Amino acid sequence: MSIKLSFAKVVLSYVFEGSGLKKKAYIIGMGSYLPERVLTNQDLEKMVETSDEWIVSRTGMRERRLAREDEFTSDMGLAAAKKALKSAGKMASEIDVIIVTTLTPDYLFPSTAALIQCALGAQQAAAFDVQAACTGFLYGLSIAKGYIESGMYKNVLVIASEKLSSIVNYRDRGTCVLFGDGAAACVVSGEAKGYLIKEICLGADGELAEFLMLPAGGCRRPASHETVEQGLHYISMSGKEVFKHAVRRMENAAKECLEKASMKEEEIDWLVPHQANERIIDALAKRFGIAEEKVFKTVAKYGNTSASSLPIALDELICEREIKPGENMMLLAFGAGFAWGASILTKSEGGL
Ligand code: ACO
Questions:
Q1: Against a cut of 0.90, is the pTM above it?
Q2: What CATH number should be reported for the domain whose range is 198-347?
Q3: Domains of the chain: which residue ranges?
Q4: Looking at residues 22-32, what average pLDDT do you find?
Q5: Span 275-311, pLDDT tens digits
Q6: Whose CA is nearest to atom 29 of ligand 1?
Q7: Residues 235-273: tens digit of each pLDDT
Q8: I need a labelling partner for 148 at 20 to 30 A (CA). Which of 36, 47, 223, 259 fits?
Q9: Pocket test for ligand 1, best of 59, 242, 306 (most atoms within 8 A of CB)
Q10: What is the DSSP annotation of 79-104?
Q11: Residue with the nearest Cα to atom 35 of ligand 1?
Q12: Residue numbers annotated as active site
């Protein structure tokens, strides 16, 4: 009997997948939130020894947004989530899981996702945080994709939110010019509209962890007078090393993703990379051989907002440009860990 049952299961799954009925995951709604306060290069010139010329030529950044003192990662994530729900035509009560991806949570615990779940009134939703630094959104999206494809959940809310200004040392010119605050969110569902999440490839290399980290505040170096005096509660980064790996890792992730999706580079219509540095984005675009107007950049306006960078850019691209059904987007991210990822989205008929 059990052999017959297993055989039936195999046949059914073969018919199911072969007939194209296998569940697929779609982004059916998106939204982003940027705080109002603008920090320009000219403002930074008054704070550290730097210049607009240096910042623009080395990074492409002109300004970034900063959250108010009383505005936190959960607040920004909540604002983005509400917009994403509206754009998806869903109510908070329809969300099964909330995944927040951030490296600046309101607290080490409880999760920022739980705080947003409560503020949103999504009592029935499970909630947890994912930490993969600037690649967080793709890691979160991959979990949502898995939930939908497996049939475990119907609607997943993925939120990326960062208050990087809370861990930036505004006396360190090497890092303070780079980062900004902001949030973005999307609803992932099995409803065939919006953007099909065709493929996601992820990677990590913890050997290189020391190049980009927050040295204190974890269990290895709990916060103390000494750690604060030494500024170990601020972002520590070896920019050159990060730069070198960023281009190579994202390029390889893109290739792997194309191969998995049985696609060619020419089939990518839009490139949406992590917004850490315009030179990194341009190097990627060159290696990809994609036209400049097809590479979406927000780096000049918002700087690097870590996990939020990629979804903020994606949300703006969807709002500002006319994406036609059948067009493909390549999303790329790289950050602390090191961790990196690539994803291919395809525009469906209807929805977003
Ligand atoms: N203004 C003026 N001079 C500066 C500044 C500044 N803001 N910052 C650094 N400098 C100086 C340095 O002190 C150095 O001077 P020196 O030669 O006298 O020592 C000189 O400029 C060159 O510094 P580099 O660090 O070599 O400059 P580089 O061209 O590498 O640019 C940058 C630095 C912009 C940080 C670049 O390396 C970069 O973008 N790296 C990647 C960052 C990234 O991708 N992060 C992503 C992940 S973020 C996350 O996961 C949270």
A1: yes
A2: 3.40.47.10
A3: 26-193, 198-347
A4: 96
A5: 999 999 999 999 888 988 899 999 999 999 999 999 9
A6: 58
A7: 999 999 999 999 999 999 999 999 999 999 999 999 999
A8: 259
A9: 242
A10: HHHHHHHHHHT--GGG--EEEEE-SS
A11: 239
A12: 134, 274, 304
Distance 173 CA to ligand 1 centre (A): 8
Q: For the chain, what is the mean pLDDT?
A: 94
Q: How many CA atoms lie within 13 A of 301 on its CB side?
A: 11
Q: Pick 26-193's CATH classification: 3.40.50.620, 1.10.40.60, 3.40.30.10, 3.40.47.10.
A: 3.40.47.10
Topology alike, domains 26-193 and 198-347? yes
> Above pLDDT 70, what percent of the chain?
94
The preferred substitution site among 43, 47, 240, 332 for testing ligand 1, maximizing ligand atoms within 8 Å of CB, is 240
Which atom of ligand 1 sits closest to the CA of residue 235? 51
* Cβ–ligand 1 contact at 298 (below 6 Å): no
Strands (E), the chain: 26-33, 37-40, 63-66, 97-101, 126-130, 155-163, 181-189, 195-204, 212-213, 236-237, 270-273, 328-335, 339-347
Gap from CA of 106 to ligand 1 centroid (Å) = 28
Nearest to 288, CA basis, from 247, 321, 326, 324: 247
